[in-house]
Write a structure and sequence with these properties.
Layout lengths: L9 E5 L4 H12 L3 E6 L2 H13 L4 E5 L5 H15 L4 E4 L32 H29 L2 E6 L12 H21 L4 E8 L8 H5 L1 H10 L8 H12 L10 E4 L7
Parallel strand pairs: 1-2, 1-4, 2-3, 4-5, 5-6, 6-7
Helix pairs in contact: 1-2, 1-8, 3-4, 4-5
Length: 270
């Protein structure tokens, strides 16, 4: 299927050091793309770059914090200097923080399955940090690649959202709000950049066992709660997300823009 080939394409993947970002980097490489892998931890993205090269594609590891616009601009500049073009952007970098918005005065009245000591709340710094990475980071990366993509009249942008963008859960107000905002940003940018043949879509993963969610999955009771809530009653496979990213990055999805696709075992269907 030529519509799924990414031969000759150049991709940037943020949060590429592990988990979903690493899998998407490798999936894009297996489909033929050369990949610029980015995250804050150099050792992790260098390992991802090595794996991309083992697939037979070129790779460039660039350490960057997506919450800092100057570092994002430098990331895109280095990608253009190295490869001459950027065809695909995957905004995967993310941050999760759990805490009640305001302190619970009586722990016996907390929501089900919430175990928090009294006096704990979400601080200004914690709220802002999640927003800076999950929302501002996506905005900065999209803004940085847009002039190049508009000039070429081509681009594929894939924002990694979450089913938490549409499903409410206690203790994750900042994360859920940031992901809901990513969904709206995706739709707005799809309309702004459609005249330049830039497709902007989002993937909303559900329950996947990654470094970000390891604490809840590693606990047997927590794992069972995850599985009990998923209609398909199984854990998600990261390779499925990688395959979807290849579809959204290739010509097969040229008529799709402004969409949020949930891959969550049926959670958002409930």
């Amino acid at each position: 299927m030529p519509g799924l080939s990414l031969q000759g394409r150049i991709a940037i993947v943020t949060g590429a050091g592990r988990g979903i970002g690493r899998m998407m980097s490798l999936s894009l490489a297996e489909a033929g793309a050369d990949v610029v892998v980015s995250a804050r931890t150099s050792s992790e993205i260098e390992e991802t770059a090595t794996l991309v090269e083992k697939v037979g594609r070129r790779a460039l590891a660039v350490a960057a914090d997506v919450s800092v616009s100057a570092e994002v601009d430098d990331l895109v500049r280095r990608a253009l200097d190295e490869f001459g073009q950027v065809d695909i952007l995957v905004n995967n970098a993310g941050k999760l923080f759990k805490a009640p918005v305001a302190p619970f005065p009586d722990v016996t009245l907390e929501p089900p399955r919430v175990t928090r000591e009294t006096g704990v709340r979400t601080s200004d710094e914690e709220w802002q940090s999640v927003m800076d990475v999950n929302l501002s980071g996506v905005f900065y990366c999209c803004r940085a690649v847009a002039p190049h993509m508009m000039e070429r009249g081509y681009g594929k942008i894939i924002n990694i959202s979450s089913n938490n963008a549409t499903m409410a859960f206690p203790l994750v107000a900042a994360y859920n709000a940031s992901k809901a905002a990513v969904n709206m940003l995706t739709r707005v940018l799809a309309l702004e950049w459609a005249p330049y043949s830039i497709c902007v879509n989002a993937i909303g993963p559900g329950d996947y066992h990654t470094a970000m969610t390891d604490a809840s999955w590693a606990d047997p009771a927590g794992r069972q709660r995850h599985l009990d809530g998923i209609p398909l009653h199984r854990e998600g496979d990261l390779t499925d997300l990688g395959t979807l990213a290849v579809y959204l990055a290739g010509a097969a999805s040229d008529y799709m823009t402004g969409q949020i696709i949930y891959m969550d075992g049926g959670l958002t269907a409930k």
